[in-house]
């Protein structure tokens, strides 16, 4: 399992400072949707320029204009761009073909989708790289965690790989290790800690099963 940290509620400059602490121990840095709403592609550009070897995901959550909007994010340096599963297949295809053109990857966000297996089968056939089950921030604690959706998603995937997001914390890691998605996304559980490097190290150690990660 790869660990993706979501930088949501911080400025681009704070994201750069946080990245400096963890770029060597994190698998993917996500520029979260709230940061993109506030600052556009600036943080994507800044992070990729400072850490060219780190995978940067732009959580644009595209819902229309798949080609144009994903091209902007890839052009800014994103390695992975997100599109909503609720978007039209034409939009998804636009993101996929643009990602291929740039040599980059597509993640589809299943937020709000009720028939997980049906939509996942369709998306898998469209050639997306990752399908992410996601419990929205606004419904976390009120509806089911994304882990049930993950157990529905995994058996139907033929080509795409699974990701999971929405309130993931240390307590969830044993459950997620059993399910074994390709990517685990954690935001507030990591960025809310005063020592972000320690928080990421602890989660990576829990994921990788022992004190194997980093040296601090
Ligand atoms: O995409 C998001 C919100 O739409 C968040 O980045 C994602 O849910 C991870 O954050 P958290 O772990 O705090 O839920």
TrEMBL record:
Catalysed reactions listed for this entry: D-ribulose 5-phosphate + formaldehyde = D-arabino-hex-3-ulose 6-phosphate
Has UniProt tagged this entry with the keyword Lyase? yes
Kindly indicate whether the keyword Lyase belongs to this entry: yes
> What is the E.C. number?
4.1.2.43
Its keywords, alphabetically, are: Lyase
Annotated pathway: One-carbon metabolism; formaldehyde assimilation via RuMP pathway; D-fructose 6-phosphate from D-ribulose 5-phosphate and formaldehyde: step 1/2
Q: What class of enzyme is it?
A: lyase
Family annotation (InterPro entries) = 3-hexulose-6-phosphate_synth, Aldolase_TIM, OMPdeCOase_dom, RibuloseP-bd_barrel
Q: Residue ranges of the Orotidine 5'-phosphate decarboxylase domain?
A: 2-203
Query: Which Pfam families does this entry report, sorted A to Z?
Result: OMPdecase
Q: What does the similarity note say? A: Belongs to the HPS/KGPDC family. HPS subfamily.
Name the PANTHER family on file.
3-KETO-L-GULONATE-6-PHOSPHATE DECARBOXYLASE SGBH-RELATED
Protein name as it appears in the record:
3-hexulose-6-phosphate synthase
* Organism classification: Bacteria, Bacillati, Bacillota, Clostridia, Lachnospirales
Protein's gene: hxlA
